[in-house]
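Two folds, back to back.
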Amino acid sequence: MKYQVFMDTGDAVHLWLCPDNPSVTPTIEVSAEGREPVKLTATVRMEHFADLGMHQTGLVGFVVAEEQFAGIESALGLQIHCAETRLRIYSRFREDQHNSEKLFFFQPSAVPQMAMLSQLSRNFAIHHHFLESHSFDTINNMIHHSGRSVLLSGRVNLLRYADPLHVMDFKTATLINNPFNELAERLLLCRAVDLAQSPTPFDQSIKGLEAIADFARGVDLEDGKLLRRQFRMLSPEAKEAMSNPLTKMFGAPMHERVQRSHVTFALENLSRFDLVSTVPRCVEFGSILRDILGLKHFEYGESRTFKSAAALADTLARIPSVVDLLDHDLAFYSFVEEAVGIGLDSADVA
């Protein structure tokens, strides 16, 4: 899906929405506080969409004005969603409520800090999480959103989006987990989602981790001897899914085999971020992030994860094949941990 909201004049919002199915005429839903939602079908024909083969008819444009949504100029909490996917594509900026910055929070952890994301979201007019569950085109549209006050977060490849993020003046931040803790959390998350056998808040988090889920389904995570044997017999798919996810995310191009040199690239890329910290220092991370952005509604405490994650991480750290799987990430994390410690300690002294 592709879309763009290119103008809000107060009395009208102008946008286009091009669905994945080029034969479908798109529909949006407009809502506001205290108002019944209104569904609208595209009425503006944009010929170049048809000329380029992006849509059969080019009927993808909308003008949402008084005639379509009465009282639009004074409507509080005005929002526009894609009626088919329920994706929010626009939310009107409110000076008294929203931060005017744009932030891309690279979230390497499969188990995100939900409390922090919830607190952060209150400060932004537009916010999208779990970006790994969206297509490249949709994420690109989110980044190129013409408005201010945008928060995006997810487990996506940095190199794929670094240039548009720079062009669109996004601030960038990340919170890095210890590689053994991260693998433990991924295994426990996949097991929890599998056992639930029904929709859970974390279903979106296992996008791309299907091979890990297959592995977790067949082992006893509390049996260290069995885990050791199972890790020696990993399928190629599971090995690829578990191998060095941090270095892949920050230093390697998509679908390229991770090498030691990518650790250096990842560290260089992180050096250009506005804020980098580690999960054990998340309280300091939250405090600094609040100051950098001037957030009005943000208080954040200790990190949260599965109760059994620490014990499983300790077990994984004693399995040689796991250490081999995470070799590059362990080197990467040690450098990040040291740099974060030096930075925070020097800030305390200052």
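---
second:
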Amino acid sequence: MAEVPVQAARPEVASAATGITVLRLASRSPRRRALLEQVGIRCTVCGADIDEALRTGEGAAEHVTRLAVAKAQRVAALWSGLPVLGADTCVALDDLILGKPADASDAGAMLRSLSGRSHRVFTGVALVNSGSVQTALSVSEVFFEQLSDAQIAAYWRTGEAQDKAGGYAIQGHGAVFVTRLVGSYSGVMGLPLYETGKLLKVIGIDVL
């Protein structure tokens, strides 16, 4: 049975250690949910359908932060009773933001552009609670080995690249391309746990 929106007053937020659902996650990403569960945070998934198009003149940090806030606010407007966490991730090569590849040719072009050099992964996080909005930003630098056309073609056949920003997943087969990472592994996956934990602590949800 589908969950029905409620209008009850927000209850006091519980500690993550209690095993009680303490958040709504404004994302359908199984990776973000798994990361929260990894640190004991139980959540209810509520996808947020928003326009994710890049605005003219918008940088990567501004883009992911704006979308994280928009996702969290959309879900908070529909459902009451729990704080809402939103997040958004993008891959940036210099000043170019790489989205999700449209097809094999597009994915190949993205991976060739990342080959043998570094790029940055930006993840914005937003927490909406009782009308207030708190945000955090994670920026990581990822270094790739030189990729061959055969590697790129084989990677496309795994199916991982098709719905991933930048055309790869660091938590999957794409990890074999990464020679070095400076920053947050969980942030590159889509939800930086350090920054998220700090936001949750402000509203009384202690991870540790």
